[in-house]
């Protein structure tokens, strides 16, 4: 295994701080309609103990990115590039060419994932408790001792451990199932937790309460969290950094509050503009016009040029790289400075989270 260190994005902090380095990672599917590239040369350092939010429209590749963090792309999808995991005390490994048995060990123990749709993550014929016991057993842990830990985790998530462990998923509410899944993913005390739309099916109150629980759990367990969502305003106050995906690529990344206040990429700006305000009249809503790209037919040049109000000929031909636009902030746009003037948006209350 060779680990390259030359092409890290400029604004990222030194490599030693990164717990996961994603380098030129792509995912392809061979389909009847042609080859489909559903993640396109993504490079990003995930810093130890940060909360990284990954946002973008439905179908832009967020779940592919999440699955790549565990080399868990569904068959027959093919992941290429590098996903280097750097444990605090130990040798770095590239998950992309790690043997299956080592990968199985690393999942849950080092990098854990809550997949999209908590309900489907539990086997309907098994009680919740059996999932915890099974996970401990599969990783050769002392089951009694781990079940004790499971009870503590469930309590931390304001659940009644005995009731939850003795129930089937369908006997619980969506919020309870989701919290039980979070507890399960923390059972083996992982370093990194990847959460794919963990609050999508829940009401706003439950979404907010799960997010505040996650902040607490993150501090207590020194976790690195990758939080995937299509709901930008939900996470801006909670995540340290935001990565914005469009058409299977990261088009902007930077400190969350800075990206929200001074977005560089026209797509990020359009996304912020499209956020509905609770008190604004309907006619003031601005959904992003046009359709999100088809992975079999990605536009040439900048893939956003077909929807971008400031795109010109250059954007149709040349593909923009991520460039630094602000301290620790990068965007993939030739005309990001122009976008500041021409793609306007207003921030309304709520978008920065409750505490700002
Ligand atoms: N098994 C598969 N085979 C082929 N293409 C797939 C497969 N799963 C997903 N895709 C395609 O990959 C692209 C990225 O999908 P992905 O699930 O990562 O999007 P997403 O951003 O997570 O969307 P959502 O917000 O709806 O969850 C989409 O165009 C999707 O149609
Ligand atoms: Ni998804």
From TrEMBL:
Its EC number is 7.2.2.11. Its main location: membrane. Residues 22-272 form the ABC transporter domain. Keywords: ATP-binding, Cell membrane, Ion transport, Membrane, Nucleotide-binding, Translocase, Transport. It comes from the Archaea. GO terms for cellular component: plasma membrane. This is Nickel import system ATP-binding protein NikD. The complex is composed of two ATP-binding proteins (NikD and NikE), two transmembrane proteins (NikB and NikC) and a solute-binding protein (NikA). InterPro entries: AAA+_ATPase (IPR003593), ABC_Ni/Peptide_Import (IPR050388), ABC_transporter-like_ATP-bd (IPR003439), Oligopep_ABC_C (IPR013563), P-loop_NTPase (IPR027417). Transmembrane segments: none annotated. It comes from Halosimplex pelagicum. It holds the Pfam family ABC_tran. GO terms for biological process: peptide transport. It is found in: Cell membrane. GO terms for molecular function: ABC-type nickel transporter activity; ATP binding; ATP hydrolysis activity. It catalyses: Ni(2+)(out) + ATP + H2O = Ni(2+)(in) + ADP + phosphate + H(+). It is a peripheral membrane protein.
